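Q: What structure does this chain adopt?
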Amino acid sequence: MPRTSGANASSPTSAQREYSRIYQWRIHRLVALYTLSVVGFLALMTWAEGRGLSRHWIGPIFLFIPVMVYAVVGVLGRTSSADEYYVAGRRIPPMYNGMAAAADWMSAASFISLSGALYLQGFGGTQGQPGGLAYLLGWTGGFCLVAMLVAPHLRSMNLYTLPDFFQQRFGGKWPRIIAALATVLCSFTYVVAQIYGVGLIASRLTGVQFEIGIMLGLGGVLLCSFLGGMRAVTWTQVAQYVVILLAFLIPVSWLAYKQLGNPVAAMAYAGQLQKIAELEAHLLVSPQELAVREVFRARADALEVKLKDVPLALERDRLVLHERLRYLRSVQGEVGQIMATSREYANLPRQPEVAEKRWRQQLQEYRDRSQPLSGLPRHSQPFGGDPDGSPQEQAQFHDERINFLALMLCLMVGTAGLPHLLTRYYTVPSVSGARTSVAWTLFFIGLLYLTAPALAALIKLEVMNNLVGVRFDELPAWIAQWSRVDASLLSIEDVNGDGVLQFGELRLGADLIMLATPEIGGLPYVISGLVAAGGLAAALSTADGLLLTISNALVRDLYFQTGQHKASSELRVIASKFVLMIVALSAAFVAGRRSSDILPMVAASFSLAASAFVPAMVLGIFWRGATRAGAITGMVSGLALALYYMLSHAPAVQQALPRWLLADGLWWGIQPISAGVFGLAIGLLMTVIVSFATQQAPAKK
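A:
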């Protein structure tokens, strides 16, 4: 064959380029029409609310209509083709793949919890809970690693899943099996957090129980990902990103305009930090705040006494409440007092073990709230303590700084190893398209991430200016509404009995800040519905990709890779769909237990991904000397060490296993959320050492 024919065969023809141009213009028109439809729907709902549409209707409308739209997109994208199901035919334009990746990335953690974490932790995090700007710096920096080290190289190999790389690069079945199991582990941890977010939002919008909200949202997840795989998920995520962007920017821009006269919050909020610092200085010396702190300190001291003999203290509490209830009934006391005492009596733990666990949690909460600013750090300070202060202050400064850097490293490297994210870059037409797609992803994520610190600062200033100092009977209605959803999201109590809300008497959860922003800013309830729909879209978009990744790992990379199980590509797709449904129901069951906040669950998956995949993957791409034995050893040792360090500090594991089997305290002061630091180091070291030891000597000529 002539040389020119080979060149023409490897490059797009004029007909292919024309088809690509027509295809992209068609997509542009559809996305523009969809965006205008979303804006028109929002305007229509605002008009309807002004005409008297009840909130009881607005919430369900913002839950069901977006989910139905995503479901329609999923149905239209249905396919039984393996190439379309796993990698969307490798024909997604880079810009729209970047938009879909941004929606995949803007999970419930980013949308719902990130601004809340910045509100509670400030810029530098706290001693026991690293975070703050580490999340923003780690996640955005991770995409630079994806663009430079991973995505283009994986795309050039025409893979379907991340475990495909380990089998093609190292050979044999064990690298693929280990990679598939690690994929399931870190992705399942991640998807549980998304399903938790779905339940939280659905219960707020409809008023149903949290568990029922989970099942309502889960139906939308399955409709989007079950029928069409990656093709349906990609276009669903593009539709979801439009909702996410509007839901995030509209309330933040309004709040910035209300406070600053400038709707571009990211550029205008710096001056508010000085106002927050002045209000914090005032709260530190306020007599009312000092009185609140003293009450919490007294409560903590009382709990410490009770914990010395839990059975005796529990029996004493039961007798005291029983006598108080009998006395109130005998003198025909107020109904409110009788009901409150009855609830307190009914909620007493039945077993001493349960009482001890509950009291220890309360003790930690009371200790935190007895600290200045109710245990929150100064918003703009880099780290607690003082590098030039007392030994204790120097130790605190060092501890917070090293944990900030450790968490940032884990999030950055973990981003480069998350299977559901890397699979997104298999769907573009070319290697250069993969690089371009990562750049678009950073752009679309940056639109939101640059605004998150501004939102945290604006909300904190709004709370300090417009809530603190208000009488309890004059507080806005949204406070009572959210406190009924979940006491861990919002709780208030007149601790010092003056009838006025103090900063220390208000407890906000990280998962509340974004969802309550429209109500805090005084916006119409329609915007609250939009924000909830945006959070739901963020959770659903990430859950779609994660469930698809888990089912593909279980079916394609594990079950059908053994010699005994051979099947056509159509049968593999069908099997993946049914496994996806089983995994979704399992994740819903775990999420229904409400075992943790969203952000810590997500951060754990990053540590696992960094430990299991990145050392062997990066060395396998750039070092020809990396061997199969080295990759297997590095993956197993890295994942095992990170998992061991995390579980050693989990309360349930500490109660179930003897202490000598668990890690003895914190290693170098690193918190368990950053266990990937140790897994990454041992994985890299073992991959290099074992690869050198198992390299074959070159044959003599």
